[in-house]
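S.,

Sequence below, as promised.
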Amino acid sequence: MQRIEIGYQAFASDGGEEFGAVRQILEKEFVVYVENAGDFVVPIEAVQNVHAQKVVLDYEKLDPNLREAIKHAHDAEEPGA
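The prediction came back faster than expected:
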């Protein structure tokens, strides 16, 4: 598995839509900025895969507040924009 770096895009599933980006790397966790919701701390154990500057997370291992934020990450986008 590739090392996680700041700026990598975050995904709730491989092939899914990105919902945010890695902002900070901590010892056993990292911070992800979620569009329309802010920063969330994610434990390394929730990482399913890292490749091509993408971090794919195991949705079931995420905090309920983060899962809810992911559902609404693209709510503010305008259709067709």
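The chain is about 10% helix and 40% strand.

Coffee later?
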